[in-house]
UniProtKB/TrEMBL annotation:
InterPro entries: MESH1. Gene3D superfamilies: Hypothetical protein af1432. It comes from the Bacteria. Signal peptide: none annotated. It comes from Fulvivirga sediminis. It holds the Pfam family HD_4. GO terms for molecular function: guanosine-3',5'-bis(diphosphate) 3'-diphosphatase activity. This is Bifunctional (P)ppGpp synthetase/guanosine-3',5'-bis(Diphosphate) 3'-pyrophosphohydrolase. SUPFAM superfamilies: HD-domain/PDEase-like (SSF109604).
Length: 177
């Protein structure tokens, strides 16, 4: 059942992210993870034209390769090839020199996989478009906004509900400039 899959992935992510906080807050990182998962569940409620089991696992695990010591092989062993491939596509390649290159590379890899991975990227950015930390410059806020617009454009065919949600969040985020 989906509840057991959700709980298993959440336990794994909770252990892996145990010391991590949501940037700019004192909140445990599971808050971000659960918000991304909630966006995916709401998208499925709106239009269930995707594999919720795959999408929810990728949503919960989406930052494990990038932010923890989790290995790709560990994800394969615990959750299977499709989940591991999805998480890897969402992971920015640290070997690329610029932030822009890392984002473009990740979006290319995400685009080549099924809609489930793309809609997780949309859900992640929706969740991240909260009030920026006070120390962010207007240039950094502008850059983050531009990334959100690029994500929404590149992944425009992944999920109409999430694309619309992201468009609204982008518009609201402009108030922070």
């Amino acid at each position: 059942m989906i509840q057991e899959i959700y709980q298993r992935a959440m336990k794994f992510a909770g252990e892996k992210h145990s010391a991590q906080k949501v940037p700019g807050t004192e909140a445990n990182y599971l808050l971000h993870i659960s918000n991304v998962a909630m966006e995916v569940i709401m998208a499925y409620h709106y239009n269930g034209n995707f594999d919720l089991t795959l999408a929810i696992q990728v949503a919960i695990l989406h930052d494990t390769l990038e932010d923890t010591e989790t290995t790709y092989q560990e994800l394969v062993q615990e959750f299977g090839d499709k989940v591991a491939q999805g998480v890897q596509a969402l992971t920015k390649n640290a070997d690329l020199s610029s932030k822009k290159e890392r984002m473009e590379d990740s979006l290319l890899r995400v685009s080549q996989l099924g809609r489930e991975v793309g809609l997780v990227k949309l859900a992640d950015r929706i969740t991240n478009l909260q009030k920026p930390p006070g120390h962010w410059s207007s240039d950094k806020i502008n850059g983050y906004l531009a990334e959100a617009q690029l994500i929404n454009e590149v992944l425009s065919d992944k999920n109409e509900y999430l694309n619309n949600r992201l468009a609204v969040k982008i518009k609201e985020y402009q108030n922070y400039l």
